[in-house]
Amino acid sequence: MYCIETKQLSFKYSGGAPVLQGIDLQVPEGCIYGFLGPNGAGKTTTLRLLLGLLKKQEGAMLLFGKEFERNRIEILQKTGSLIEAPSLYSHLTARENLDIMRYLYDFPPKRIDAVLDLAGLGNVGSKTVGKFSLGMKQRLSIAIALLHQPELLILDEPTNGLDPNGIIEMRELLKALNKEYKTTILISSHLLSEIEKLVTHIGIINKGQLLFQGTLEDLQRKQKQGASTIFHTGDAGSTMRILQENGLQPVLADGMVLIPLVDRSVIAGINQQLVAEGVVVFEISSGRNDLESIFIDLVNN
Ligand SMILES: Nc1ncnc2c1ncn2[C@@H]1O[C@H](COP(=O)(O)OP(=O)(O)OP(=O)(O)O)[C@@H](O)[C@H]1O
User: Fold this and answer.
1) What is the DSSP string of 204-270?
2) Burial 245-271 (b: 16+ CB within 10 A, else e)
3) In angstroms, what is the span from residue 208 Cα to ligand 1's centroid?
């Protein structure tokens, strides 16, 4: 079942151009879904709609299999979120900040220790938040979002501004939540490299349109399909001919000859043949086709 499903979700701010155009988001229950896109792609707008912070205009939104508008309270009771920087009281301790929320939402005091531990802040609960690093503040914000034991966590760029260590700590925290409590996590980011090691599913949005949606493996498969072996030789014509004779379908680009990725033993054989026929081989390399470049290609096309 999908924890979040949108159907043809569209939105525009008053007087502006469409910001979301027919988004069909499918976030399976129990997954960690990376919602990727460059600045201004429409990520925050989508997340705000899902939380009822913006009023839906067109399309359908189902959370936990239920239509959002008609089941708003029930859905939000099961959802925790971090959208934009939360307002923390910097002159109060972490525990006092949590206590204010606990008082507002009426949770038992023991939840405070539980979420401090979960967020890795167990030993700094009595420290003033003003003395916290940005990473610790982000984790405290997540601790607040976890107070009511949500089944779904919606996070808008929680790693923004964090140093590499802070990013790793955030990743470990989210992984642990997902593993231990089966919390479904929807996390937005504009950098694939930041969430690639965390997510199980990916949606790529640009200019309000979903360009790709699937598992991380689907995206990696796409990467393999697009990968190529590049021959840089002194005689592109002969290289083309030799590759064709070997049943391959080479293409010429910028004086280089490209073929789809093949086994290393095939490349070794072709190299021998090229040398035997007197063709100078300068370089044989794999085409740059990491996940980040697929993301950039999708967004730029
Ligand atoms: N309150 C608003 N009024 C009018 N236009 C807005 C408003 N908020 C966002 N937009 C516009 O909507 C588009 C999508 O913005 P959104 O914040 O959803 O993108 P994003 O993918 O979250 O980007 P970022 O990573 O920069 O936050 C942008 O063109 C933005 O300028």
Assistant:
1) EEETTEEEEEEEHHHHHHHHHHH-EEEEEES-HHHHHHHHHHTT---EEETTEEEEE---HHHHHHH
2) eeebebeeeeebbbbeeeeeebbeebb
3) 10
User: Which tens digits make up the pLDDT trace of 98-114?
Assistant: 999 888 877 888 889 99
ipTM: 0.96
Spell out the domains of the chain, with CATH numbers in brackets: 2-215 (3.40.50.300), 227-300 (3.30.70)
In what helix (H) or strand (E) does residue 10 lie, and over which residues does it extend?
strand 2-12
Q: Is the CB of 45 under 6 A from ligand 1?
A: yes
Question: Could you give the CA distance from residue 127 to residue 138 in angstroms, rounded to a whole number?
Answer: 15
Residues of the chain by 3-state class (helix, strand, coil), percent to 5? 40, 30, 35
Phi, psi (degrees; rounded to nearest 5) at 218 = -55, -45
Residue with tokens 């081989």: 281
pTM: 0.81
Question: Separation of 46 CA from ligand 1 center, angstroms?
Answer: 10
